[in-house]
Amino acid sequence: MNKQDQDVLVVKNLKTHFFTEDKVTKAVDGVDFKVKRGETLGIVGESGCGKSMTSLSIMRLVPSPPGKIVDGEILFKGENLLDKSEEEMRKVRGNEISMIFQEPMTSLNPVYTVGEQIAEAIRIHQNAGKKEAWNKAVDMLKLVGMPSPEKRAKQEPHELSGGMRQRVMIAIALACNPELLIADEPTTALDVTIQAQILDLLKKLQNELGTAIVMITHDLGVVAETCDKVAVMYAGKVVEYTDVDSLFENPKHPYTEGLLNSIPKLDEDVEELQAIRGSVPSPSDLPKGCLFAPRCPYARELCHQSLPDLTEMDGEIKVRCWMHTEEWKREDTPITNDKDQTDSDKGVTLYAAGNS
Amino acid sequence: MFVFIARRIFQMIPVLLGVTLVVFLIMQMVPGDPAVLLAGESASDEQVQQIRSQLGLDEPVVTQYFTYVKNVAQGDLGTSIRTNRPVIDEILTRLPITIELAFWSILVTIVLGLLAGIISATKQYSFSDISLMVVALLGVSLPNFWLGLMLILYFSVKIQIFPVSGWGTFMHVILPALTLGTGGAAIVARMTRSSMLEVIRQDYIRTAKAKGVKERIIVYKHALKNALIPVITVVGLQFGALLGGTVLTETVFAINGIGRLIIDAIRMRDMPVVQGTILVVSIIFVLVNMIVDISYRFLNKRIDLN
Amino acid sequence: MQLETVKKVKKPLLQVNDLKQYFPIKGGLFGRTVNHVKAVDGVSFDIYEGETVSIVGESGCGKSTTGRAILRLEEPTDGKVTFQDKDLLGLSKRKMRNMRKDLQVIFQDPYASLNPRQTVGRILEEALEILNVVPKKERPQRVKELLEQVGLQAEFADRFPHEFSGGQRQRIGIARALAVEPKLIICDEAVSALDVSVQAQILNLLKKLQRQYNLTYLFISHDLGVVRHISDRVIVMYLGRVVEIADKKSLFENPQHPYTKALLSAIPEASRKRKKERMILKGDVPSPIDPPTGCRFHTRCPLATEQCKVKTPEVRQVGPEHFVACDVI
């Protein structure tokens, strides 16, 4: 098997913009990553960084209008999904690429039994009869660790707890044995003990079925626990693409570093957390130059002037930061952001109405 | 579920008592003495007095009310002053006609309303959406007796495909059912549209799309059943409006149903009949609402039993 | 060490004794109360002046209900809450309103509690007005001070809540709580909705203000990392009951109750350090309507014995600042 074959998904320079009457919102604006067979890629970032829109773009489920994928390539097993017709995409969704969502409480149809909802996916993609699909649905429930699956299959979503519903969502997603599973904040709405159960389950099933996973999360703990590779997103762009060990031991981008420092640790005490100053810029009013420059403790004049590319460093690590370029060595302007302001919002532009 | 139905039936009792009280009080307040009316202009005071005590009208009002309720509970709605037949018989001969008319009308309401609503919602802001909603707006605003007259004028008088009036064949049903059903259809269409648009935004519709379900199946299987839940309440309420509408529609089309019975009885001051019909219509209304409630609960099990 | 001895001598600022909060469930043919949700079922703890005590637990454990019951936002079913020697549950509504000067609360979503049609300055002035703590003509000046204290520009007083980001709104919420110079602030999931980078800013701010004004915090959160950072002592709740109370160090380094251990081991940690052994609890949290008999955790506890099913464990002391409700360990 050559290298190309191993990459289940390659996303190149993906751009998804939203066009409203008076403005263009660049929700996704330059996303690059790849996922290998059986591997887990984490897409991590804070709210509004475009991570969820990236996942909907891969599924071609961006609400349109107003959203539109304006540029880039999404290569799934070598084929560009953006070239496929709607009919062809339907054969991919739920079959070769599946998705689970953040809200297990609202992601299942309240008026059908969970068994029916799993069986539907099987009937659509595997040409199975009613009875056959139902039996397979019960098997899937057993696979995702649902106690008394025959009985549960006949229940409606409101009769199940949040954790149980997320198991059902996983059963639906994996029913047709997809090659890629996109998990969009799958445990964010769950309690920690239930989160541990679900993450454990995903890991177990991945080992059994060899599914590649794109794990979208804001929680670096979940990343550490589940991922092999990580793409860190900020304001619609990937700013760092790296393996999980390097991410925690040697973060390259100042934003990644800032994120790690912001998290209160469970095993050490500090008087003050090193917060990132200011707040995320509004996606319809982005700064010129590097998007992180206004909040970056290392930013110099160059950073405010032009946007760095996502450049390859050693191995497969890529970073979008001037600090890791040749230009930086020639840059001798002073650091622009005063470190004393870490505790304050001073000097940071206010959110425009309706964008928060 | 059983407890829920039992409780709903139990809750009907005070409602029905309230209805009898209101009906009774309205009749008390209507000017004119039924005994005088019954006895005729030329009757002597003694004769009137005799009729009055015969009908129990000389008893205290409270006693009259309790006698009334007792009789009603036994199925005795009194005797028509005009025809001297028991009121219950009068009503039972007319009721099937009105029920048939109501059935076809509500069918018009549901079928036209749902279709228009679904088309509008799935093609939001398209030409068909906008034109359907304009028609729906007209449907809500036009009074149904006017619509009835216009339909007669065109279909019966001008192009003569439907009979002008009367009852008996299916051809007789169509124009009155359209007249009576369109107002409701317009309201149902608007409700279905907004409810569908709401449901289409839900997370589980996104889940269905992510499963690879066809657009058409998403609309009719995943969205519609959820969107119907609020629509059912509206249909139930429309049924009340529809019963009111029968009075005018039956008059316009000369149909011998309950509606005309009320009109005639009022005109003749046939109080027992007026009282009886209003009571029966109210009971039907309460029953329909109960059925709506139960089916609502059945469709939407997420609603807490309480 | 010295501090701890001082604490022992000092009277607690807030004492909660056997607090119970039951919510009735109506049902049956006649809509009578057929059962209760026992959201909080006999909770006791003390808070001393100047410290931060956290309540942690998963959804439905009663942590937020406890906070609301202390403030009497919901009238508690039973128990005793003493604040500065005053019995809060015995006060009249009007007197309780006056107590709000000393007892403030910050919620998860400050936006919901900020009037969208009022400027931030007006919102803060109103807080000053209601409890009449600052004379009228000094109020605008005080508003400016408050905004600066929470790290916002004084000019922001003229803006409306929707013009701010989530983190900035939470700063406004803090400024409003601070306006009346309270003694105790109950922070109910106050940083849960914020992104980590902003969350860190707010946590730093809360700590700074505590040092500055000797504030006492009751910090309610489901995030153990945040709790470790901010607290002096931690209360762990499960299904309406306290399972463990300890100073931060003992709780995180030497947890005693099996539930606390499971909770700590369930948190995915943002580091590549040696993976601790995972302890994954089976099943869901039981319903608080019909909680398990005996120890409420016995249905999910790996150490449960027959005894645990029948006997409710008493809270007992296992260390100088360490209490646990478990009979097995």
TrEMBL record, chain A:
Gene3D superfamilies: P-loop containing nucleotide triphosphate hydrolases (3.40.50.300). Residues 9-260 form the ABC transporter domain. PROSITE patterns: ABC_TRANSPORTER_1, ABC_TRANSPORTER_2. One of its GO terms (biological process) is peptide transport. Its main location: membrane. It is a peripheral membrane protein. Belongs to the ABC transporter superfamily. This is ABC transporter ATP-binding protein. It comes from Exobacillus caeni.
From TrEMBL, chain B:
The chain crosses the membrane at residues 12-30, 101-120, 132-157, 169-189, 227-253, 273-292. One of its GO terms (molecular function) is nickel cation transmembrane transporter activity. Pfam families: BPD_transp_1 (PF00528), BPD_transp_1_N (PF19300). The complex is composed of two ATP-binding proteins (NikD and NikE), two transmembrane proteins (NikB and NikC) and a solute-binding protein (NikA). The lineage of its organism: Bacteria, Bacillati, Bacillota, Bacilli, Bacillales. It comes from Exobacillus caeni. InterPro entries: BPD_transp_1_N, MetI-like, MetI-like_sf, Opp2B. Coiled coil: none annotated. Gene3D superfamilies: MetI-like (1.10.3720.10). NCBIfam families: Opp2B (NF045470). It comes from the Bacteria. Its main location: membrane. PANTHER family: DIPEPTIDE TRANSPORT SYSTEM PERMEASE PROTEIN DPPB-RELATED. It is a multi-pass membrane protein. The keyword Ribosomal protein does not apply. Keywords: Cell membrane, Ion transport, Membrane, Nickel, Nickel transport, Transmembrane, Transmembrane helix, Transport. The keyword Transport applies. Belongs to the binding-protein-dependent transport system permease family. OppBC subfamily. One of its GO terms (cellular component) is plasma membrane. Residues 95-296 form the ABC transmembrane type-1 domain. This is Nickel import system permease protein NikB. It is found in: Cell membrane.
From TrEMBL, chain C:
Pfam families: ABC_tran (PF00005), oligo_HPY (PF08352). Residues 14-264 form the ABC transporter domain. The lineage of its organism: Bacteria, Bacillati, Bacillota, Bacilli, Bacillales. PROSITE patterns: ABC_TRANSPORTER_1 (PS00211), ABC_TRANSPORTER_2 (PS50893). InterPro entries: AAA+_ATPase, ABC_transp_ATP-bind, ABC_transporter-like_ATP-bd, ABC_transporter-like_CS, Oligopep_ABC_C, P-loop_NTPase. One of its GO terms (biological process) is peptide transport. One of its GO terms (molecular function) is ATP hydrolysis activity. Keywords: ATP-binding, Nucleotide-binding, Transport. The keyword DNA damage does not apply. This is Dipeptide ABC transporter ATP-binding protein. Belongs to the ABC transporter superfamily. The keyword Ribosomal protein does not apply.
